[in-house]
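Problem: given the chain below (457 residues), write out its structure.
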Amino acid sequence: MSEPGSMQRGLKNRHIQMIALGGAIGTGLFYGSAETIKLAGPAITLSYVAGGVVIFLIMRMLGEMSVDEPVSGSFSYYAYKYWGEFPGFLSGWNYWFNYIIVSMAELTAVGIYVNYWFPAVPHWVSALVFLVLITMANLANVKMYGEFEFWFAIIKVAAILGMIVLGILLIFTGINGRATGFHNLWIHGGFFPNGTWGFFQSLVVVMFSFGGIELIGITAGEAENPQKTIPRAINQVMWRILIFYVGALSIMMIIYPWNKVGLDGSPFVQIFSKIGIPAAAAILNVVVLTAALSVYNSGIYSNGRMLYSLAVQGNAPRFIARLNRKGVPLIGILISSALTLVAVLLNYLIPGKVFMYLLSVAVIAAVINWASIIITNLKFRQAKGKEAEKLVFKTPGHPWTNYLALVFLVMIIALMFTIDSMKQAVYVLPFWILVLWLGFKAKKAAESKARAGSRAA
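Solution.
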């Protein structure tokens, strides 16, 4: 182990793009979309467009800061520098907590997918096995991690494109059967079967799907050429995600009645299985399993880096900032992985109910992350003053788009009150912020005591 130092800049543009895709195209699409379909029906496509536009604006705000100052720790560092000590403390620990919860959700989904082939295997067993394997993979150097995640994400992207092509063939030719046409979009209660209210409620689950795209900012400290790779990754990844989400889900809604999609597995696997293409369903289950592991892999990566950044700031114990000989924050990764073991315990104690509980908490934590990015970007511009005109990657419509995005996030929290499985997470929000505040005050008190002790000596 070495003392705190610099990480290795071993991530190329293709790595960064696929890491961001890997973080955002996962369980939210392949499993969580079942809940969204239940709420919005065919209008799910518009839900993802609306959520995607807001997330793109937030990513541009983060990208503006990351290009100007490419550091590991991303928005926690910027909040600490431009907003204040507590915002930096809060955003860093909250992001870490968020991805711990997301990692737990992904491990839970892994158990559900494994049951497609091995229904007798308990969810907690699958979660434990893959937790150990992915943790071991993350202890390699960052370039090897980038390659690992690159190929993970390639499998997902290729599978989604394959599904879209196969779906189009089913719509227009039927593939040895009758063409499905487009009538499934409106014959089962209309395009908005649950009205506009169902559409608005679906936005909550949609926002969970986009959680993880902030990984682009986390990678800035290890990118080979952040001034070029970060803007390119943000601009290209966003429209790709919209195509993959909106394109794939539009096809699903056209070829299969939305009201027959259940919550006992991936809707993509269910649909291809029920329309008589079992081989496609089996292949898709491999893909959705890979997708969940990919997001979990990205979660372990980002959590290790965030803990490292917090330790460098002095907001976490100093020993966490130590790197191994490969430039990897080994201690941060092992701590994050160990805490994710809670998912194994939850799947043992309450099998079948864990995913939606974790999703609701993850949405709340993600909203805090996004809100901190928006506000920090406003503070960043304020600190730059006239120098802001020289920024090379500006947020479009600043500051009005910042305010628009904040209003949207407040609406998401309000909507969570109307969903039974999610309202408890909203009640937890003030207590979680209080816990972080108490942790911050304890840290400041310890620092004051240490200073007093050194003066007395």
